[in-house]
From TrEMBL:
It comes from the Eukaryota. Residues 33-300 form the Guanylate-binding protein N-terminal domain. InterPro entries: Guanylate-bd_N, P-loop_NTPase. GO terms for molecular function: GTP binding; GTPase activity. This is Guanylate-binding protein N-terminal domain-containing protein. The lineage of its organism: Eukaryota, Metazoa, Echinodermata, Eleutherozoa, Echinozoa. Gene3D superfamilies: P-loop containing nucleotide triphosphate hydrolases (3.40.50.300). SUPFAM superfamilies: P-loop containing nucleoside triphosphate hydrolases (SSF52540).
């Protein structure tokens, strides 16, 4: 099943997806209580009988995430909005009819767009302060390639936006990961957690280290992620340590302004806007797209490459736990339970 327009995969329970009209209805009088899976999005995952490469984007609200994800792929389109109200709610999915080869096998690309971090004006006035962290825990568990999108020269404030990583363990008991030192490459690893790309938007300055030009990747690693006092329990260090524990590769790339023309920026998602994109933006976008399509790994769990329908099963199990008060997802046992259930099912079918 290929979908040209993105559909919701997971919404707050005060939102309803109208599949016929292809729009969201919001029960504004009701608070957000639970995560709610959406049939249409879930069916995309269930219909995929290939292994999957899952690219997910997160980052501050209104920072061009949906536009970027729409441009990266050949098809699947995420809604872009030009006002100050946050647009994307929950997690949205698109999976254009496009396979990539991984270890000699075809794998299907899946793109997940997430609700912006730090939104002050969600359309339902969300006041659940655990919502963001639960959604991010889920996004991390689903993805094999995690893009953190930020605008302008990265700062410690941007690092703090990744603060949810330090509280990841509130919601998730991680699978046993190999130690960082001597850790296998992502291609050999059984880990279920993704590679990380810090994507710097509207970048104009040249990154430097000791007054010499460097790559954004080295800049991020040697400045913002450099832990100068490992024993200090401050929040920055907690986040840095969590990043090292959580991700495989850590990389960074930048994109310049899409245009200096305000009208172009405000019509970016239209054919005219796209045809007026600055050539340097287009070149950088092409480079980043190629990098993601070539290097993003297949999603693995328990040493096994996951198919779309496996991921759908896991997603349902994860959401059930996150909707339970104080529920903690045990990644390893969730997978073991599902594998055991499937083995039992195939045994019954064989009999
Ligand atoms: N300056 C700038 N604006 C951009 C860029 N990419 C998209 N935009 C504009 O930023 C605005 C928001 O774009 P979206 O893609 O909806 O942003 P988002 O991060 O998905 O927003 P939320 O879903 O609300 O968190 C739109 O007006 C876009 O045209 C960019 O690289 N630089
Ligand atoms: Mg968006």
């Amino acid at each position: 099943m290929a979908v040209d327009k993105a559909v919701p995969l997971c919404l707050p329970d005060n939102h309803t997806w109208d599949a016929e009209e292809q729009c969201i209805h919001i029960n504004e009088g009701a608070p957000r209580n639970k995560l709610q899976l959406c049939e249409e999005g879930l069916n995309i995952l269930k219909s995929i009988d290939h292994s999957v490469v899952v690219v997910c984007i997160t980052g501050p609200v209104r920072s061009g995430k949906s536009f970027l994800l729409s441009q990266i792929q050949n098809g699947g389109r995420f809604d872009v909005h030009h006002g100050t109200t946050s647009k994307t709610t929950g997690i949205w999915i698109a999976s254009p009819e496009c396979t990539v080869m991984r270890n000699g096998h075809p794998a299907r690309l899946i793109f997940l767009d997430t609700e912006g971090l730090g939104s002050l004006n969600t359309s339902d006035g969300n006041e659940d302060n655990t919502w963001e962290r639960k959604l991010l825990a889920l996004s991390l568990l689903l993805s094999s390639y995690f893009i953190f999108n930020s605008q302008g020269t990265p700062s410690y404030d941007d690092l703090l936006k990744l603060g949810f990583l330090a509280s990841f363990s509130e919601f998730v008991k991680k699978a046993k990961l190999p130690q960082r030192r001597g850790r296998p490459t992502p291609h050999q690893s059984n880990t279920s957690l993704p590679d990380f790309l810090w994507l710097i938007r509207d970048a104009i300055l040249q990154p430097e280290l000791k007054n010499k030009p460097c790559t954004w990747s080295n800049y991020i690693k040697e400045t913002i992620l450099q832990n100068r006092n490992a024993s200090s329990p401050d929040q920055r260090n907690q986040i840095r340590n969590s990043m090292i524990d959580t991700f495989g590769e850590i990389d960074a790339e930048s994109l310049p302004f899409p245009s200096i023309d305000r009208v172009v920026i405000q019509t970016l998602d239209s054919p005219e806007g796209i045809s007026n994109l600055d050539p340097t933006f287009n070149d950088a976008l092409q480079h980043i797209t190629a990098k993601i399509i070539e290097s993003a790994n297949v999603k693995m769990e328990g040493g096994k490459v996951l198919k779309g329908r496996d991921l759908a099963d896991l997603l349902q199990a994860y959401v059930n736990v996150l909707n339970t008060p104080n529920g903690i997802i045990d990644v390893e046992s969730a997978w073991d339970c599902l594998t055991a259930a499937k083995e039992a099912e195939s045994f019954i079918l064989m009999k």
